[in-house]
Structure formats: structure tokens, C-alpha cells
Amino acid sequence: MRSLPAADPGIPDARGPTRYLLWTARMQAIPLLSGIAFAVLWWLAQAMVPMVVGRGIDALTQRDLDGLVTWSAALLGLGVLQAWAGIMRHRRAVVVWLTAAYRTVQVTVRQATRLGATLPKRLSTGEVVSVGNSDIGHIGNAMDILVRGIGALVAIAAVTVILITTSPTLGLVVLIGVPLMAVAVGPLLRPLHRRQQAHRELQGDLATRAADIVGGLRVLRGVGGEEVFAGRYREESQKVRRAGVRVASVESLLEGAQILLPGLLIAGVTWLGATFAVRGEISPGSLVSFYGYAVFLISPLRTLTEMADKLTKGHVAARRVVRILKLTPEVQGGSRTGVPAGALSDPDSGVTVRQGVFTALAAGTPEEAIEIADRLGRYRESAATLGDVPLREIAVEELRRRILLADNGARLFAGRLRDELDPAGHDDETVHRALHDACATDIVEALPDGLDAHVAEAGREFSGGQQQRLRLARALLADPDVLILIEPTSAVDAHSEARIAARLAAARAGRTTLVATTSPLVLDRADHVIYVRDGVARAEGAHRDLLAHDADYRATVTRGED
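^ that's the sequence the OP posted. Answer follows.
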């Protein structure tokens, strides 16, 4: 099997699910068209078999040995052609399925990367996960069924022409019967579409609930909330089950129609053919051919109803993908690059992080510090500047490379620990130095395989404090021009916090660093402290000077205690 195309798919136009499916088809036009060509050849080879068999029977009844040999050889040739075309059709269909499914993954992941912090604010985790769990399969099926479905249409047309040529009455029966079958199936598609959409939305909500429960399982056990959340999960899962049953009820009618309607058409064609044979209007071989055509028509007609079902599911799945692709980042970047280093300033709050200074931001509430950090990191629209250049004018790629905002919402992903901490691939000495500065050496030493140990999803084998220290080590290894940390020691004990504060100040000496914290241990190590209340900088200076002369700062840092 060939690998997926290496061409950059970009992010497609997101004006509708139908347009997205058409874009997916255009992006793989060559394998799709070649697959359709092989499918047409495959179906036509099957469609010609009843005619060849009928001609062979007529030759046998007429004792025509040469004709019998000729038609037997033709039958053998059709069998070989059908086998070869079937293999090639299947190979192309698999390529089309994989390309459509995983190209959807590519554009979705690319869009998620472009959206960044905007994505979790607009969509739930479950909705995004559902794209990779089920929607890519339905989009792949929609492309796959196009290969067989278009071939089935050509086969039905060819059989109709043959029947009309042999017997106009039988040909007209097929010509009129096939559209009537499509019309009969049509009323089932609209409720199926609607119920599938509702089912997909409930599945996304349930996946979000499951992710929340798994992520907070330790806390739930600590407060005894497992039964409450388990009950809520059971209730939502029952809603998904009932929605699935409603979908299945329509699908069962559709499946029944795939058997009943072609069966009625076959019965009618066979009855008419037998009547004509009794009257002597057609030969015995033609009667066998008509019966063969009637049986053959089951497959292409079922393929057409299957195509209606899978295209409907693909349309529903594409709607979810389009919902993601329609989102735009909250913050748009400029085009300037190569901006010289300088102070990082937020005019809205009056906070200025001086270049090369280890600065601490102590705020009256955590929300105030986070809002200022988001503006300085360009995660929300603001008038913040780097030097004399507004951040909105700098290219987003350069901003993300030069300014790193690390908060406690960051995660450790599944994989090798070394890869999670150091994507850039530094040498062991640099990695161990960052672990030492983050007071995380003991965590790695306790693992059987050290840095080569496998990390589970979201780093769930580590405690909250251990995850926080590992995330700090990862941020230090990134070594950005400007590092903004949000409460990097909130989950560690006092002894570890004191060591981290001292080592962090030494590790970032001469580098621009902002730490949002109210920890006295960290504040005491800062070169410069800015106190913020009501979203505005109220005081600046050394930690001990502010303690001595600013009562509000002292109350915030000491939690109201002397």
C-alpha cells in the first residue's frame, strides 16, 4: 500500500459540509477517478456475464460447438477481467478512504495549531476528539462509496440498454423501476440525517464528560464524588444510547429497503421474462440471461442505497469538521520579523517587564495576573509592546518563538519523557541542568528508565507537584527570549519551592523573565516586583521594601497574616 500524498493540503474553504467533501474529492482526483474507472470495468465485466451465459446456452441448444467454445472463452475472459479489475478497484478504494480520512486529520490538526488558545474556548474536548474517533471514518466511507456507486450507476445503465435492445418492455421496467426505488428511499434520508446529527452531538458531549472525569479522578476520589459523576455519566450515556436507537430504527428501514425494493424489481423482471419465453418471444438463453440480470441488479441497486446512507453520514461528519474550520483565532498577528529585543510593556495595566530582569508580578487576584500575562504573551487583543513595536504588528510565529507563556493548564503528552521535555533535542547535560533548576531530578531518577521512560496520557502517573516541576523544566529547556510563568510553584512543598526560586533566578539571570506569583519565597528572589490591584500597577520595587511600606501588598503576600 502506498503512503499518503505528501502534498501540503492547506486549510480548505469552510463554507459548508458539501463544499468540504468536494474539496476532499478534488485533493485526490487521480486515485478517485482511476478507482471509478476500475469500478466501472469491474461492474461491466459482471454485467456482461448473464448475456454471455445466455448466448452459450443458445449455442448449446442449437448444437453449435464453435459458438459454445467462443462464448465459453468469453466467459473465462470476463472472469479474469473481473478479478483483475476488482483487485485494482479495491486498492484504489482503500487509498481513497485513507487519504480522505487522514487528510481530514491533517487539516483539523493544522487548524487546531492555528487556533491555539482559541480552540478550547470555543469547542469542547469531546467534540474535537469525535472528529478523530468517528468522523474521519464516515468521510472516508463517503469517498469510498463514490468509487463503487458511480460504477454501479454505469452498470445499471448498461444492463438497461441490453434489456431494451433484447426486449423493450423489460428494459423500460428497469429504466422506470430504478428511479422509483430512489424516490422511495428518499423520505428516509432526511430523518436519518437529522437523527445522526443529534447522535453525533451527544457523543461529543459524552466524550467531554469522560475526559473531565478521567482528568479529575484523583480529586473526585478525595472528595468522594465518584458516585455523583458516575451517575451523571450513566444518565448522559443513556441519552446517547436512545439517540443511537433512533438512528438505528431509520437505518433498519433503509437496510430493509435495500432488500425489499430490488427484490420486487427482480421478481417483476423475472416474471415478465418467463412470460415472454412461454410465448416464444425470447429464447431459453435469453430467459436465463434475464434472470441473471435480475439477480445481478441486486448488487448495484443495494450499492446505490448504501451510497445514499454513507453520503448522508459523511455530510454529517463533514459538518463537524467545517465547524472547526470556520473558527478564527481571537488574536491575529502582523508581518514584522526581526524585531529587536526590548522591554515588554502592557499599557492597560502599566506593567513593564524590563529587558534582562527577573520580574515578579503579585496581583490581588489570580485572574488579574493571568489577564496581564495573556496580554503580554499576545493571547488576547491589547496594546502591549515589545520595545517600541506593538505586539499586534509582529508575526505570530516570531512571537511564539521569542515569548513563552507557561501556565498550569499545559499538559504532558503521551510518549517518551525525554521527547516531552525536550522536543529540540538538547544534549544530556543541558537537559539535566534544566531538571536540576526545576528541582525535578528526583522525579526522573525514580523512574526505571529515567528520561527514556514512557509517559502516560496527560502524565497521570505523576502527582500535581511533579507535573508542575516537569513542565517548568520543559519551559526552561525552550530557553525563550522572554519567559512568562504563571504560579510555577503553587503545587510544591515549601522546601522545594525555596530551591526552585533560588535556582530559577540563577538560571534566568540576565534573561527577561516574568513570574506571576504571590509566594514570598519567589518574590524575595526577584530583582523587581510589581504589585497589581484592580488590574492596575499600584507599586513597584524590591520585595522587602514593598513589605515594609505598602500595607496592601503586605496583606496580599502574607494572606492577611503578619
